[in-house]
């Protein structure tokens, strides 16, 4: 009888391992299609706003408020739909993202309607944002969180190259329009939702609405707030410098995107391994130091070099900056390791996303005013100060 129990236990363990590996492979496919859609979106959206709606720098900053509002509210959204479980919520997010893309491509005759579809897209991508690392870590062992997330992110980034290639080749040679590009991205999001639907939907242990704010997670919330402020300055104004000041178009951004993806495939694997070997404190501190250097590059390139060289320096800063997005994994694994209980992870990550985006809604508005009154140099000098604060907080990290 004891022998039979041992065999049954081993069989159950092997079956669970098989399900985990199967689901992780499906999750990698999800990463591929979200990568294609994300590559298209990030490449053309800023040019879409500039070419179709002719926004000024201050107006571009204001647009970030409604775009980031769903991210600020994501803790409420995920709390309400927590009964679905992480995988089903992620699939729901992909459907919202697809609807938003379709709306941007086909039903945006006015600036006001564009904002509605932009917010729908934003809601979908922000639902997926805290759930992706959670799903990846749930399909991993503690000592392989970084490696597994690094692998998912590497697949995701490899696929963005396809998205960038579609934009570069399509706009340069095929007369691709913004409408068609957005529809291709919408289909990619729907395919990602389909593969999420094929995964085993783990039922949440807690089926009531959960909002988690514990003092044990205070440092994580602070890191999210600081990171949100710095990140949003880069996301909003780094491409805007290249578009408005140096007049770069979608094909150039697609080419930059390909470079970013190739570099990021390597950096995400390195960051994933570094998290498991060196720890989150080391990774986040190193990121902060690099960001300070990048801010200096954005700020002073035009002062120390002629225009042709300055745009190359800023483009290099743009590539390195975007390649550092891999470090977001470290904040997620930090929460997983310090969580009081496993059920805290999703609501805590969603709370962090909300903290991040509350700041992200206001910073671009202030940055737009700063750009208009003093010049873009001071926008990035402000980001340097924030990066210093990020370094100080990262040195406070302790994991038992």
Key descriptive features of the protein:
14 helices, mainly alpha, 400 residues, single chain
Chain-wise SSE layout:
Layout: H1 2-53, H2 57-72, H3 74-80, H4 86-106, H5 111-138, H6 145-174, H7 178-198, H8 218-245, H9 250-277, H10 280-304, H11 307-323, H12 328-338, H13 345-374, H14 376-394
Account of the protein in words:
- By secondary structure, this protein is an all-alpha fold.
- 83% of the residues lie in helices and 0% in strands.
- The protein is built from 14 helices and no strands.
- It has helices at 2-53, 57-72, 74-80, 86-106, 111-138, 145-174, 178-198, 218-245, 250-277, 280-304, 307-323, 328-338, 345-374, 376-394.
- The protein is globular.
- It starts with a helix and ends in a 6-residue tail after the last helix.
How would a crystallographer describe the biggest sheet?
Answer: none
Helix-strand category: mainly alpha
Tell me the strand percentage band.
Answer: under 5%
Order of helices and strands: HHHHHHHHHHHHHH
Number of helices: 14
CA radius of gyration: 21 Å
Terminus-to-terminus distance: 40 Å
Which spans have pLDDT < 50 for at least 5 consecutive residues? none
Name the helicity range. over 70%
Q: What's the pLDDT, averaged over the residues? A: 84
**What's the multimeric state?**
single chain
| Number of E-type strands | 0
Which term fits the overall shape?
globular
